[in-house]
């Protein structure tokens, strides 16, 4: 039997292209601009600027640019610097004051540290998947913050939030975590949303990379909701001994609201 190798190669090439297209379609478009953090020469484009005291953009071999958060910073110094940096982002960050590793006088023991993406347009009724790579000294929160237009002030105001809390993060090994969410399911007036990377307690270093938000099907959403329910049950059991510090009650103080929308 004669084999037409040219035809086989052409068929293989076409099949490969179609397979790659299918994979790309399955993965979905990343709605977070510069979710890899690699765009931009000095800082990550489409993300909030790092302040050089509590938030940093660093390079890691094999990954490129990542976000680093330091929550072991004296609270008073962190809040004072946040005001100064907001007024003039060209200022040089101060030298960090030394405090005890277990100090509740840190920014991590109070408001926490955060860094925001650009706003993303919400599609009515659409389900989404949030994914992030993380490693660090504790469990962070990756928030989805939704906004609607105030009817009188005509400005964006808070209207929705949910969060991804990694189940079993590692201090040294990158791991990937995901949740499903739908900002307009119960809040149909939500127009835009953004990702907020957030770290607080215990004091230490927290690292983030490859932040993704993509549209998903109702079936995929149902699977993620089921997985999240199982994870929440595990967290409740893990926290039964009461040794895990609660979420800071003053994490949304007036000052932080002024600094972050």
Structure, described:
24% of the residues lie in helices and 28% in strands. The protein is α+β, with helices and mostly antiparallel strands and 261 residues long. Strand 1 (55-60) and strand 2 form a beta hairpin. The longest helix has 23 residues, at 5-27. The chain is globular. The relative contact order is 0.18. The model is unreliable at 5-26 and 238-260 (pLDDT under 50).
Residues in helix, %: 10-25%
N-end to C-end Cα span: 71 Å
Order of helices and strands: HEEHEEEEEEEEHH
Strand fraction: 25-35%
CATH class designation: Mainly Beta
Kindly report the CATH topology: Jelly Rolls
Coarse shape: globular
The total count of helices amounts to 4
Total strand segments: 10
Structural class: alpha+beta
Task: Provide the gyration radius in Å.
Answer: 21 Å
How do the strands of the widest beta sheet line up side by side? 1-2-10-5-8
Kindly report the name of the CATH homologous superfamily. Answer: Galactose-binding domain-like
The whole-number mean of residue pLDDT values reads: 84
Low-confidence stretches: 5-26, 238-260
